[in-house]
Amino acid sequence: MSEPTFEPDRRPDGAVALHFTPAEWRHFLEDPSFLAADDNRYLPPRRLMGVDVVIVPDHRFG
Questions:
Q1: HEC readout, the chain
Q2: Of 13, 22, 32, 48, which has the highest C-beta tally within 10 A?
Q3: Coil, strand or helix: which one is 32?
């Protein structure tokens, strides 16, 4: 069996960001409970569960 080729997207500084398309991000925003959580933020700097969010045109970017 071959070794998996998946490599996590890690930056040298240890920072992590979630990548969403505009449609995926809009899906979160439409949920009424989104802003009920203190660690979510819809305006820059965008956050979901306290993690930075980056909006990308599609998942080939980011």
A1: CCCCCCCCCCCCCCCCEEEECHHHHHHHHCCCCHHHCCCCECCCCCEECCEEEEECCCCCCC
A2: 48
A3: coil
